[in-house]
Amino acid sequence: MAAAHIDMQARTAAWSGRFNEAMDERLLGYNASIPFDYRLALHDIRASIAHARMLAAQAIIPQPDFAVIEQGLLGIAQDIRDGTFQWSRALEDVHFNIERRLTERIGDAGKRLHTARSRNDQVATSMRLYLREAIAGIRQRIRHLQRAFVEQASQHADLLMPGFTHLQVAQPVTFGHHLMAYFEMLERDDGRFGDCATRLNQLPLGSAALAGTSFPIDREAVAHELGFDGVTRNSMDSVSDRDFVLEFLAAAAVLMIHLSRLSEELILWSSSAFGFVALPDRFCTGSSIMPQKKNPDIPELARAKAGRMLGLLTGAMAMMKAQPLAYNKDNQETQEAMFDAEQVLVTTLEVFTGLVAGLQPNASRMLAAADAGYATATDLADLLVRRSIPFRDAHEVVARVVRQAEAQGCPLAGLGEEVIATLMAQTLGIELQRARSILGDDLQRVLSVRGSAESRSHTGGTAPEAVRREVARARQLLNAAPGL
Amino acid sequence: MAAAHIDMQARTAAWSGRFNEAMDERLLGYNASIPFDYRLALHDIRASIAHARMLAAQAIIPQPDFAVIEQGLLGIAQDIRDGTFQWSRALEDVHFNIERRLTERIGDAGKRLHTARSRNDQVATSMRLYLREAIAGIRQRIRHLQRAFVEQASQHADLLMPGFTHLQVAQPVTFGHHLMAYFEMLERDDGRFGDCATRLNQLPLGSAALAGTSFPIDREAVAHELGFDGVTRNSMDSVSDRDFVLEFLAAAAVLMIHLSRLSEELILWSSSAFGFVALPDRFCTGSSIMPQKKNPDIPELARAKAGRMLGLLTGAMAMMKAQPLAYNKDNQETQEAMFDAEQVLVTTLEVFTGLVAGLQPNASRMLAAADAGYATATDLADLLVRRSIPFRDAHEVVARVVRQAEAQGCPLAGLGEEVIATLMAQTLGIELQRARSILGDDLQRVLSVRGSAESRSHTGGTAPEAVRREVARARQLLNAAPGL
Amino acid sequence: MAAAHIDMQARTAAWSGRFNEAMDERLLGYNASIPFDYRLALHDIRASIAHARMLAAQAIIPQPDFAVIEQGLLGIAQDIRDGTFQWSRALEDVHFNIERRLTERIGDAGKRLHTARSRNDQVATSMRLYLREAIAGIRQRIRHLQRAFVEQASQHADLLMPGFTHLQVAQPVTFGHHLMAYFEMLERDDGRFGDCATRLNQLPLGSAALAGTSFPIDREAVAHELGFDGVTRNSMDSVSDRDFVLEFLAAAAVLMIHLSRLSEELILWSSSAFGFVALPDRFCTGSSIMPQKKNPDIPELARAKAGRMLGLLTGAMAMMKAQPLAYNKDNQETQEAMFDAEQVLVTTLEVFTGLVAGLQPNASRMLAAADAGYATATDLADLLVRRSIPFRDAHEVVARVVRQAEAQGCPLAGLGEEVIATLMAQTLGIELQRARSILGDDLQRVLSVRGSAESRSHTGGTAPEAVRREVARARQLLNAAPGL
Amino acid sequence: MAAAHIDMQARTAAWSGRFNEAMDERLLGYNASIPFDYRLALHDIRASIAHARMLAAQAIIPQPDFAVIEQGLLGIAQDIRDGTFQWSRALEDVHFNIERRLTERIGDAGKRLHTARSRNDQVATSMRLYLREAIAGIRQRIRHLQRAFVEQASQHADLLMPGFTHLQVAQPVTFGHHLMAYFEMLERDDGRFGDCATRLNQLPLGSAALAGTSFPIDREAVAHELGFDGVTRNSMDSVSDRDFVLEFLAAAAVLMIHLSRLSEELILWSSSAFGFVALPDRFCTGSSIMPQKKNPDIPELARAKAGRMLGLLTGAMAMMKAQPLAYNKDNQETQEAMFDAEQVLVTTLEVFTGLVAGLQPNASRMLAAADAGYATATDLADLLVRRSIPFRDAHEVVARVVRQAEAQGCPLAGLGEEVIATLMAQTLGIELQRARSILGDDLQRVLSVRGSAESRSHTGGTAPEAVRREVARARQLLNAAPGL
pTM of the predicted model, to two decimals? Predict the structure, then answer.
């Protein structure tokens, strides 16, 4: 939908019959929501048509009025899509703007549309319709980004790199395995958005201002037409509830936290200290003063936008805190958070789908880093344990081996079997000969980065084989996802 | 579980083999998590037993070792329940404390327990077990509080009070209807906690430090014994993921926001300006200087604790932002937020269950307030609409009627039919006679508070009849809830 | 400054010499800051002129170049003020837009402007200049709002109302005293903004990208021309520091919290339950369905915007957390928070200045509420204490008196001296005669609402006399404030 | 002060005279603040003595009573310091606990202490006294940490390392310069805490419950005895204000953000990818499964605690939002945030002082990284500019030179003068000979890392000479700081 053109000239507000004073120009700017809620227009119209159809079916308005209302609203919807609709700030919000225009176009029938409803249930309905659609779009983009991870993981299931804990080299992992961690995070994100969409999919319309209405309405019919799973059960809750915004923002914040973690890694990996990946030029910027720079602006911005999303969540929660029932104007401010969050999610997911697809790993830098960091120390410990040394004792042996390797400035494999056996004999108080026989003849394989990774082939493990299994599973899952 | 007694004397940490320097006393205090993570002890033990059983079944440790380990751990669990277990801060966390004690009790077999796992997957497992149980307890308490609302609503389904929007008297509602709004909020809360519990119920154990393990483990067997629905699919994600804490805190924050709204209303209602309800004395405190005061301390504290919960959520999200994979020590701080949030939820829910059950409404104050506030103006408008006046025109008529009533200082009904008909005729430009016939003969019923409420009998409406239907539905739902 | 018109057509970015790929259209939207940072334009130009003058003075650029640069920049500034400047999104930010235009206008001399600086120190300088001016504007508006409070307080220094703690009627206060509480809050707000403005008033220019520059610059001269108190002392800190934004947002959040408290009170006071004040019609809205409603939308929105401000603060702090030095692109996102916060503060302060000035208290409702709430119970206790009854004993006596009055449904004064003396004798275990003599003959004055308020005449007390003293002091303070 | 031992047995609360029901056991736990506010005990006693002295001086209580009260309170203070004071949860808070004990010790005189005050102004006074002292302690620790930075900077003023922007190598800096950036951040932190301490240093005592008192008190005398700069000017503001907590938490959050940035750098620098510094062993932990690991737990925890602090701030602000005046129980929850924040700040500052002092830089790794990253590209550009090439043209030349060096896999200096001159001639469209002459004969010095750093010697620049000047200035500043 095109950005709104808003007429700032004051006209009469819809509720102004009772008041002696017109609203101050400055106050209009403070009060009006049309600069952001115009985004609800098409959903508002859709809900109005369903409402009017039901009013006519229940004989609350004349049947011919419905035909006129529907035609009028469809015409307005077309104007909005075309960008020719003229919004007025004096009419405060999207609902009044549309209703006023409708009455201008079709006369008295338009005035009957607002029968048996209120702005309070109307805005709640439009917001739920909007958010339901927004979430569907976000989930589709999550799938696209997941697919980018899966394809990269498939291609790099064998690529060895150091795995980090505490940003210290810990154990070898495969690049494919590392990338698939983000597939899993996004899978949970998708689930949270899905739960949110399911929970919000109850129709609040018919709650009117806060108490329901005295007209013989048929809420189930409206719910059915609008694709809701049912109707809300309490009118006061329905007009004051913004849980769906809070739950959406919480899911959004967690998703952005995941992408901020990826961003942090991309920034690290593309630094010269790591040199693990190159980001495509088109995702980077240069420096005005340092021509050699290739800055990872996109991940940095996404990292910051995780903070922004946290702010949107915090702000909206603080808005809802301690409000008495039922509707209060405070709720209006939650809309901006919802719109801003959707925008951030959509653009970030789209940008990252391209970015992830374009990542170019540097295999030699990755392997060198894995080799240099004593990353297979655990494997040595596990070998000892398999040869019946208690884990904690094995740990002590390996700790001394690492200290020796550090002192000599060589990798573990570089120490040689004899040194390792000697340290082991000393630590455990056993004969050197016994130590040698415990170590056996596959020490070099165990101490190798590839051997380490390949040995972790159970579900969830980092072995290329395990990664390929998860890639296959993920593809099935994505292929089964709706709308892809 | 009794509060932990912690030995602050320094002993050797489990990982200390490699280091040349002992950890500074001050640092121990900064680093140790045992002052809070002792709460995980019984879950840690349960997971350790399942892990050891699997190790034996897979022949990774000798079968007899398992028997000794299990017996040792059960003994430790008993000591912990009895409050006789001596925790040591120098052993940093609950996991080392238990493992060290196990080794003291059973010797070498104890050292084998840590085979094929790491503290990273161990703590993730214990936290999930803990949180799963915590959520079950919270959900049960949500049900108790819901039942308190349902019983009060049942008793007061007919009790009339003003419904507010913008804290202005809007339309009459029933007290039962108002209370049932909170039933609905809690229903969504319960759903969110349920979704969180379902999503977290995947076993991370077997992820080891971050890459999985080279031992031939059987993760599904452990998952089955511990009641998990399955195993996590990526070891790096499994040790770095704290989504379950964030999702729990988000659900907790929304629940506390709901209770903060109730608190705000209880504070308002028990003020002398409103006088709608009396809180039982035992939920109030007096003033040290103003003996006439009966302060709603409990709702005020709960209102503040909604802020505290928001802080816990914000803090935990900020902790997780931009962490590179896999495990970092930052994650440790999320535990305190989890424990604090559980404590706040449990106590608040329990206290509010008693508070809601003990609410004593003041029917006459409620009715008087509903009568005084022109709360049936909408009903007059609706009457006109039913008599074919377009909604917006009817609105204008009623606006003038209200202004007249305000000027005369009387309720709408007090104006008399003749005055209303005259204003109507002037506004619409019709004959007085026509206005009289439009108004018809049920004007007094329409303008009455009770008539207004009773006319809103559709699903979600405020009519006593509708409230009773929802109460019946809610009771069925609660009776069907597990564990109640 | 008029809103920016931005050309979305792609052109070449300033740093593009090195790159093989142009930036993707979608990425431009993600990356470009010009949609918000155009607000810095005039400050950027001012700083550029000062920088260029210094470059010429130090013979880093030819003197004639400076003249041309200055003229060019002044022309651009005029175009910006006129709204004729064409911004380009492809040029990313305000700095490149202006520099590119300058070079188009004046040729090679324009290319010399960027000598000895970087966008990193340039944006830090522009933001500080902008924020310094923004804070000055905010402080002036704080003064205006304070004056509105002072004038209302002056007019209503004698007006009695109940003072609340825990929203329970506690003791009588004067409306003037209550209003002056907000004067004090705003006084602290003003101090915080002042401290922030002082602390940020150090010139970062000359820090270049992060390390300073090899040109013989004169930072003190630039600082002097731009009105800074000095120069920053560390170039790495200078380009990465956004403390001034965080400190500004924290001060803004506290200010909005104050106004949210006022908003809460205005909402309560204008409810029919309280009826203490009427808000002017032009600050309220009506209801689309309930014609009798006069909704306090402005205070409700302000209350919500306090939540929004908290979100801006939280978000910006989360953005800055754990960034390594020196400049990262994350910092860009803090700008939007700064601009949004300024906008919220300016409009809210302006709107509230009118709102506070237009408040119309309802003296009879206030007095009736103060009379009804046993608000002088403390005064009775104090009387007893002055007659040598220990405070805690007096407290017990008064508690029983209140209980008796509640049982009889009358105010304290309505009980009569004899009843009070009897209760006192029973509680303290003294003769009735002694009790009578302790009470003395000024009991009615002590129990009166006016007598209670008038007796609290010390500094900070609620007595009309004390309020008038504070009003006089406040006027002096405001008259001495700069720029008013 | 030793941790509090609290008696959980129910006794009668101080305000219980009026109530028919005793408080529920569970509610006591929810309501009582003694588990945390016992920390205020000594400040509460100090304020009580000052208050009692004034009461006697004003003849509000008998002079002998003061002597008894003072002696009684000093005895209680001694018991508290000795850890023998028995706290009772049934007495709710620190104030009632002390007053009740006082009355037990000295009889009726104890009951007179509470004359002319309330818990509301009492707790506000105790909190300000406490926070004033806490801030003094924090500022002293800030100075200690600053000194650690200064000493390290002094020692390493010449040590070259790469400076980063966007975590890309940008320009050479000195390690001393980098460390002094933190000195500057802490300097601003110190200023913010100082401003907070100054602003809070007004005595609220005498505000009583909310309206002041009818006794002829002398607030200035109490303020003087307690070291306050003056008295607060409005009693309602005084009892409801918690700005000082919010301002303290905001300052604390910014400080922790600074330390989180340092933490991030320490984690990066001590990773094997960077290898710039070694953290002393005693600040690290090992891994239970990976014996080679040396984990930077302390920086990781501090990074997380920055999130925790943000949560404390957010929570406290949300608590204060939209509270009506005057005192509400919500305020009680802000205390826990204050105490927790102080604890985090004190321990983190102490731990970091040791950590910073013990940092061991690895000069060769730092230099190698600076050499490898084209960090002197800007210097080449600046050289061209000094030889009259417009900045933007010079930028283009250098961009091509960098691209060439990248293609050849060599540092800039490795390209040789001839290649650089050729690229320059092509880019600018000039003769090769002219290009050579422009480059001149100091190209190698300009392209060297040391030459680059040394050339930035202005105030704020990274040159060793500039660092030494700032170190000297910082030492003067620290030596002049109070209490060091």
Answer: 0.95
